[in-house]
Amino acid sequence: MDISRFITCGSVDDGKSTLIGRMLYECGAIYENELKDITDEEINFANLVDGLEDERKQGITIDVAYRYFNYENKKFIIADCPGHEQYTANMVTAASNAQIAIILIDATKGLSMQTKRHSYICALLGIKEIIVAVNKIDLINYDENVFNKIKDDYLKEIANKQSNYYFIPISAKLGDNIVNNSKNTAYFKDLALLQRLKSIEVKNSDDEFYFSVQYVNKVDDKRFYLGQVLSGSLEKNEELVVLPSKQKVNIKDIIYDFKNVSRAKALEQIAISTNKEVDISRGNILCKNEDKLFLSKKVLADVICFSDIDIKNEVLLKLANQTINAKITKVNYKIDICTLKQSHCDSVKLNDILCCEISLDKELLCKEYKKNNKLGAFILIDKYSNKTIACGMILEQLKQDIEEKRQYTKEEKALNKFIRENYPEWGCISI
């Protein structure tokens, strides 16, 4: 059965939790302990998703809630993202695994700051399929002009050429255009929401096989390498290259779900053994084609900040199972969410979105995010508090400056000093 992962996002009170509750209800995916909530005359769909007590009291989503349902032979995994700006990190975490985004807009309010922020983050994370659901359409008497105005504003101010957009007028509370087209919006001739979700065929960004070693275990004198298939698929007896050592091995066993299987595919957590003993450790990448990965000590990346950051401090960069000392060496610009324009950046604050250069103290195995979202995405961690302070997407590998690579000897430095002191007319610079 095909599986699609999608998120709902947008500003607080736009009706994200209510929409998910409605979809679960229509698809018969309500848990038994929640049935008591739907015996009331008016169902509170949001309570089917907002599981935390604080969420129910405040009527907002705080943490990401994941739910599952089937619709006409297709399986969906939903992540309900918080709408408040202070929970942007939660929204980014959920969006990083999504293939489709439903961006809700309150029909009575139009575009908001969070509409722009979440839309921009979805674009950064490479989500190509965007459903813009104009919710609470019943509160404006299903007005076609208002729906078209919001659609035009979104296309003019937010949409980009890399994504596909589908605009649907809905009422999550009353069920308009959720399963079938509503008689109240006769002007809307496109697919209803669930039909649209079912129709979208999602393609992975990269079908190349990559396996990230998380843990090495020895059982009965045989070494097993545990980790996740980041992308692509693997079969027994196939030859793989271990990076960065470039040793070659053949796969002997593939263990998945406590069973010895002949094949593994993307996102599965597996254990493998090889035909010979070689040095394989945590952080190593196993692949079929080493030429499509690059080793880099400096990268250009888009970064979303989860807290204020002092860029003078060293941080830890974690990508797959690699953890390396890193430092933001240059902030090229930050994005102004109001105008979506680039602007100068003097300091790095919570929720800032930056384009910056990051230097590493040893080489990182990685790939451009647009080619592989598992080997192109990373997080930055504060070395002292161990707190995740940002996430990023690699845009490209940067060559290090020659001066940055060169390490001068004591003799070279002494000669440089001698020349500068005795022959100043030569214009020799200090090293």
UniProtKB/TrEMBL annotation:
Protein's name according to its UniProt entry: sulfate adenylyltransferase
PROSITE patterns tied to this protein: G_TR_1, G_TR_2
Signal peptide: none
Organism of derivation: Campylobacter canadensis
One family name in Pfam for this protein: GTP_EFTU
The protein's Enzyme Commission number: 2.7.7.4
Annotated ranges, domain Tr-type G: 1-222
Keywords: ATP-binding, GTP-binding, Nucleotide-binding, Nucleotidyltransferase, Transferase
Superkingdom of the organism of origin: Bacteria
